[in-house]
Amino acid sequence: MKIDYLGHSGFLVETESVLLLFDYYFGDLSPLDRKPAEKPLYVFVSHAHGDHFNPKIFSLDKGTRPVRYILSFDLKGNLAVSGRADILYAEAGETYDVDGLGSVQTLLSTDAGVAYLVTTQSGTVFHAGDLNWWDWPGEDPAWLAEQKTVFQREIGKLAGKRIDAAFVVLDDRLDVNYAKGMAWFLSVCHPSYVLPMHFRKDRSVIERFKALPNALPAGTEILDTTKETSWRIEERSAMKKLLIVIDMQNDFIDGALGTPEAEAVVEAVKDKIRAYPPKDVIATMDTHGPD
Question: In the prediction, which pLDDT does 115 show?
Fold first, then answer.
């Protein structure tokens, strides 16, 4: 998987079979012209704010490759949206099966629109859009409590899901609370890579976040979007299939605790074991000490 950071919250992702463009605001899109024409392009917009939605994206449909647009529901009726584009409007809290791509799960943003979890044949990426714990110092306590509730509820929907690359808000404008959203996300999700976005003038936020105690869970690497703009990452392989043979020993087959039924399955279990590489077979043994 190749990832290019375009600035602010914009990313271009290339997998073995597709191209994904998220929240384009500014940046050089000319590399798209050099990508294999057989790879379809899926353009995601998380919401209608001008720093996440640039109508220039509709000029990418030049007829040289398939292009499909996945736009947040709040862009319906927006006069800047092309009437000729192939568009899927994504509602919050839904999962869509998208031909040629895979599945797209949406979360409700704490600001506007949606966040996206996109699962392809090659890997899974998460783009938060403006889904963040917006704990603005001095804001109304009731509003802040709602922010916290919605953010934690929505991120909780990702618990236990495999994520190869996550694009997550780390906004310096939140002052002392800049790290709350990122820290909570990483406490629930454990992506292979996390790429901070949406920072403004203070580009020290990534170094400051990395310096926090226990900032990153084991197995997660932070890619510094203030210092680099392009990476090639290895997707986390899918869950491995293992064979576990539990307590298949003489006592339980034809010994003191054996049964005819246990004896009858021995050959079938042996055949199953032969079908697996030795390194993928795990056997347990019930053991009792002299006491």
Answer: 98
Q: How many CB atoms lie within 10 A of CB 192?
A: 19
Q: What is the pLDDT of residue 218?
A: 84
The CB-side HSE value for 28 (13 A sphere, CA atoms) comes to: 7
Query: Do 45 and 76 touch, CB atoms closer than 8 A?
Result: no
272 CB-near residues (< 8 Å, 6+ apart): 243
DSSP 35-52: S-TTS-EEEEE--S-TTT
DSSP letter string over 244-282? Answer: EEES-SHHHHTSTT--HHHHHTHHHHHHHHHTS-GGGEE
3-state secondary structure of 107: strand
d(CA 66, CA 220): 34
pLDDT, position 235: 62
Provide the token pair at 86. 């192939």
Residues 6+ apart with CB under 8 A from 63: none
**How far is 179 from 168, CA to CA, in rounded Å?**
11
The label of the residue with tokens 């584009």 reads 85
Q: How far is CA 264 from the centre of its chain?
A: 46
**Using CA atoms, how far apart are residues 21 and 12, in angstroms rounded to an integer?**
5
Contact partners, residue 69, CB within 8 Å, separation at least 6: 42, 43, 45, 57, 58, 85, 86, 87, 88
Give the separation between CA 74 and CA 48, rounded to whole angstroms: 6
Provide block-wise average pLDDT over 10 residues at a time, the chain (291 residues): 96 96 95 92 98 97 95 97 96 97 97 97 95 97 97 97 96 95 96 95 92 90 95 68 86 89 91 74 81 64
This model's pTM is above 0.90: no
